[in-house]
Model the fold of this input.
Amino acid sequence: MENLAVEYQIEPQQLLFAGNAHFNFINSLKSPNTKTTYIQCLKQYMQYRKVKTVEELLIGEQRLLQSNIIEYLVSLQQISYGTRYLYAEVSRHFYDINDILLNWKKINAFLGQNNKVVNDRAYTKQEIALLLEKANERMKVVILLLASTEMRIGAIPALRIRNLKKSRRIWFTTLQSMKKLKINTLPFVHLNALEVSIAI
Done:
């Protein structure tokens, strides 16, 4: 398979999101956050393919479209497996919702190994304290929330007052995702974050 190198990128403002393909793609997604993420991923693929319109991604017979996606996934081997998988899922959704049936078992075979790109670890108490020293009151809340729960940063904008409950002097956040795991509440401040918050 020919290895397509990106010699230049089309600027994002030059990309045209219109037509039936775009309508089907964006309106079949429910969450606003998902729409934003999927559009960004589709933009990246359009830039890689050097096309300006969404409709151009549908041009070609099945094997050519599959080959294009496979080449794209292979070009992404230096980024994390999770991100590569996301790009593949966005492509799958785009083609499926526009009635283009591709062999996704074959395509996904080129995702590569699920190897960690970086070694993640939890922040130490000293690192949390340093962040809190530099943060204003608003960001202190965000830092303590992220440091003391498994919440992703992308979930914070959707958090509302009604998701919070107070027990004694500690706030708890009740999340739908935790209910699915049969966990009623997550402590807002605990462990390292609690020790740091008391210290400051």
Observations:
- The chain has two domains: 12-108, 125-199.
- Strands lie at 164-167, 170-173, 186-187.
- The two ends are 59 Å apart (CA to CA).
